[in-house]
Amino acid sequence: MEPGLRSENAVLRVGLMGGTFDPPHYAHLEIAARALEELCLDRVIFLPNGQPPHKPSYEVSAAEHRYVMTQLACADHPRFFVSRAEIERPGPSYTIETLRSLHALLGPATELFLLVGFDSALELPTWREPDAVLAAATLVAAPRPGSDPAALETALGAERAAQVRRLEMPLLEISSTALRARAECGRSLTYLLPPSVEAYINKYSLYHKG
After folding, report:
1. What is the pTM of this model?
2. How many C-beta atoms surround the C-beta of residue 61 within 10 A?
3. How far is the C-alpha of 135 from the C-alpha of 196, rounded, in Å?
4. Neighbours of 46 (CB within 10 A)
5. How far, in Å, CA of 117 to CA of 81, rounded?
6. How confident is the model at residue 91, as a pLDDT?
7. In whole angstroms, what is the distance from residue 170 CA to residue 31 CA?
8. What is the distance between the alpha carbons of residues 129 and 195, in angstroms, rounded to a whole number?
9. What secondary structure letter does DSSP report for 174?
10. Contact 47, 86 (CB under 8 A)
11. What would the mean pLDDT of 166-180 be, rounded to a whole number?
């Protein structure tokens, strides 16, 4: 069993952070750290996507690179773990399948908290089996620059929006898209992600062109 999925306790409160993590950065880590405190979680498990269902595979870096970068980003926190569950599952990485497999592994009494950015929460109706996702885990939305709480009800409807918990935290204007663009131009990523992740990006020239 993977580290982070092993437990001596019958009941756990587990935060789950899925995403491409292409690359992982300080905003991802801050969301996880805030969730640990605010939601009284036992741990947060990061789940790099294998094949993101909303993005063709050619738009993201190789899964193994993203997995290693996420491991490096989480290495200094004792309650952050990284799972290969979505990377090793064939086909698109659907959230509901991950939630069901984790409930089967950890036991139905385990409480799962799905940590997402506010913009991702707005896309819930496009996910596979969105109501099953809400039944399997508490959806926790972290604020993003320009996010409007009223937009949640507009996008999801009142009943679904009422089931979404909002995470209180400062806004960090860091995005993986912007970091890839900076790296492509040879600009520094210092203070935007852990030094070990920047060193890995530079070692393998992940986002450099030419």
Report:
1. 0.92
2. 18
3. 37
4. 25
5. 19
6. 83
7. 9
8. 38
9. -
10. yes
11. 89
CA distance 92 to 130: 16
Given a cut of 90, whether residue 170 has pLDDT beyond it is no
What tokens does 126 get?
A: 């496009």
- Six token digits for residue 28: 């991802």
DSSP 8-state symbol, 148: -
SS3 43: strand
What is the sign, positive or negative, of the torsion defined by CA atoms of 6, 8, 9, 15?
A: negative
* H helical segments located in the chain: 26-38, 63-74, 85-88, 95-106, 118-122, 130-136, 149-156, 158-161, 176-184, 195-204
Residue 181 has pLDDT above 90, yes or no: yes
Q: Which residues contact 196 (CB under 8 A, 6 or more apart)?
A: 72, 73, 75
Residue from 109, 8, 2 nearest 47 by CA: 2
Query: Can you name the residues that pair with 15 across neighbouring β-strands?
Result: 44, 113
Separation CA 43–CA 33 (nearest Å): 10
Residue labelled with tokens 């009422």: 162
For residue 8, the 8-state DSSP code is S
Q: Under a CB-based contact definition with an 8 Å cutoff, are residues 49 and 61 in contact? A: no
120 backbone φψ class: left, alpha, beta (φ>0; ψ -120 to 50):
alpha
**Which token pair is 82?**
């990284």
For 86-145, the pLDDT digits (tens) are 999 888 889 999 999 998 988 878 999 999 999 999 999 999 999 999 999 999 999 887
Percentages helix, strand, coil for the chain (3-state, rounded to 5) are 45, 15, 40
Query: Amino acid identity, residue 19?
Result: G
